[in-house]
């Protein structure tokens, strides 16, 4: 089943779950790489993404939050340097992007959405990485796929609810054609 068909199937049951986003891809097809997106809080149908760079947070694709735009900028800077970097350094840089805690304020979209929050909490929510014991980033995933279909899958996860304890695991494999 191709990515778009899979996401169409998922979308028929999307209403049964809390908010989520999913990206699925078919790599190296006769049409090139095909990347699709579905979020159950937005459009009712999945979409095929045109080539480019997108920002995705815990809201919908390309939500115009300053933290999302800032994260995209940091990501693009890492990508621009990527060919000159060893893979482990690139993964570290990408994890740094995902774990950036600099508040991106003022941001009218965040402030409007978080009117009931006091400023110190709002500052945390306005960062790429929200780090709280009961809310925020629990896992970061970096997936690198080279031209030969070799995949490096790195996941960094919080242990229990302790924001100071993290575990990183890396898996490598080759995609089947």
Question: What is the topological layout?
Answer:
Elements (H helix, E strand, L loop, with lengths): L2 H9 L9 E9 L2 E8 L7 E3 L16 H16 L5 H12 L9 H6 L5 H7 L13 E7 L4 E10 L2 E13 L3
Antiparallel strand pairs: 1-2, 2-3, 4-5, 5-6
Helix pairs in contact: 2-3
Pfam family, one: TANGO2
Organism: Mus musculus (Mouse)
Protein name: Transport and golgi organization 2
Task: Provide a descriptive summary of the structure in words.
This protein is of the alpha+beta class. The protein has two domains: 1-52, no CATH class; 55-177, no CATH class. The chain is 28% helix and 28% strand. It has five helices and six strands, in the order H-E-E-E-H-H-H-H-E-E-E. Strands 1-2-3 form a three-stranded antiparallel beta sheet, with helices on one face. Strands 4-5-6 form a three-stranded antiparallel beta sheet, covered by helices on one side. A hairpin with a 4-residue loop joins strand 4 and strand 5. Helix 2 packs antiparallel against helix 3. The longest helix is centred in the middle third of the chain and has 16 residues, at 66-81. The chain is globular. The two termini are 14 Å apart. The model has no long low-confidence stretch (mean pLDDT 90). It comes from Mus musculus (Mouse). InterPro entries: TANGO2. This is Transport and golgi organization 2. Pfam families: TANGO2 (PF05742).
Give a short overview:
Helices cover 28% and strands 28% of the residues. With 177 residues, the protein is α+β, with helices and mostly antiparallel strands.
């Amino acid at each position: 089943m191709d990515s778009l068909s899979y996401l169409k199937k998922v979308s028929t049951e999307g209403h049964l779950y809390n908010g989520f986003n999913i990206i699925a891809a078919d790599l190296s097809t006769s049409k090139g790489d095909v990347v699709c997106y579905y979020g159950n809080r937005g459009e009712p149908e999945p979409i095929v993404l045109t080539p480019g760079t997108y920002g995705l947070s815990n809201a919908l694709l390309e939500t115009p939050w300053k933290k999302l735009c800032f994260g995209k900028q940091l990501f693009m800077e890492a990508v621009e340097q990527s060919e000159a970097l060893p893979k482990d350094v690139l993964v570290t840089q990408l994890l740094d992007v995902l774990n950036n805690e600099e508040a991106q304020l003022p941001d009218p979209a965040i402030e409007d959405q978080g009117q009931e929050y006091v400023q110190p909490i709002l500052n945390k929510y306005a960062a790429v990485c929200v780090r709280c014991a009961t809310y925020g980033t629990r896992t970061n995933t970096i997936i690198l796929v080279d031209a030969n279909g070799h995949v490096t899958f790195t996941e960094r996860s919080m242990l229990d609810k302790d924001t100071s304890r993290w575990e990183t695991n890396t898996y490598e494999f080759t995609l089947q054609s």
